[in-house]
C-alpha cells in the first residue's frame, strides 16, 4: 500500500491531500480572503498566508484520511510554474517533511498536473488526446501522447484567459473572485449585442490583451453614454441641475 502526501501552493490556495493506492482519501483547501479588497492576488500576501496555512492544512488532510504521518511513503509537491513566494512555502515544507521522514520527494509540474487530473476519476481519456488548459496564469493547447509525452501546440502570447476574466471583473467592480461571475453573466447575455474584432494570430496561439483593452474602451463608452443620457433627463426635469455633480463619478 502506497500512501502519498500531496502539497499544492502555486497561487493563492494552500492544498494538501492524501492519496492511498491511487485513491484520494482527503483533499483540504485553505483559501485566502485577504486578496478580496485588492480585486486580485497580491503575491507577497499570498506567500505569507501560505506560511500560516500550510501546517494546519496538512495536519487536517492527514487526520481526515485516518493515517499517521509515520505511515506516509512519499511527498509530492508543486515545483512550478506559479508565484515564486507561494511555491517556496510549499516546496520548503515538502522537503523538510520528506527529509525528516527519510522518504522520497516527488516534484510535480503544475501544468502537467492539470492535464493528468483527468485520470483521477472515470471516464478516463485514451491517448492521444487534445487538452486545453485555462487558468489565471496559463492558456495552452496541448497534444497529450502519453502520461509524460506532451507537445505544446499553442499558447497565449500575452495574458492568460483567466487573467482577462479577472481584469474584466475588476473593471466592472464585481466582488472577488470575479472571474466566475463574468462567466456566469456572459452565459446569460446576448453574444450578438456588440461587434468586436477577432485577433488574427498565426498557428494555434492565442492573445487576450486586446480583448481586455477593447472591453475597457467599450465599458467606458457605455458609462459616458449613460451619463450623457442622465444629464439630458435632469436638464429636462430638474431646474436646479448642476453638471459639476457628475465630476464625482
Describe the structure.
It is built from 6 helices and 8 strands, in the order βββαβαβαβββααα. The chain has helices at residues 43-64, 84-101, 110-116, 161-171, 179-188, 209-237; strands at residues 3-8, 14-20, 23-30, 74-80, 105-109, 129-134, 139-146, 149-155. The longest helix is centred in the C-terminal third of the chain and has 29 residues, at 209-237. It has 2 domains: 3-118, Nucleotidyltransferase, domain 5 (2-Layer Sandwich), CATH 3.30.420; 125-248, Nucleotidyltransferase, domain 5. The strands form 2 sheets. A 5-stranded mixed sheet has the order 3-2-1-4-5. The chain has a 3-stranded antiparallel sheet with strand order 6-7-8, with helices on one face. It has 249 residues and is an alpha/beta fold. Residues 240-249 have low confidence and may be disordered. 24% of the residues are buried. It comes from Sphingobacterium spiritivorum ATCC 33300. Residues 24-208 form the Gcp-like domain. It is an enzyme of class 2 (transferase). Its EC number is 2.3.1.234.
SSE blueprint and pairings:
Layout: E1 3-8, E2 14-20, E3 23-30, H1 43-64, E4 74-80, H2 84-101, E5 105-109, H3 110-116, E6 129-134, E7 139-146, E8 149-155, H4 161-171, H5 179-188, H6 209-237
Parallel strand pairs: 1-4, 4-5
Antiparallel strand pairs: 1-2, 2-3, 6-7, 7-8
Helix pairs in contact: 1-2, 4-5, 4-6
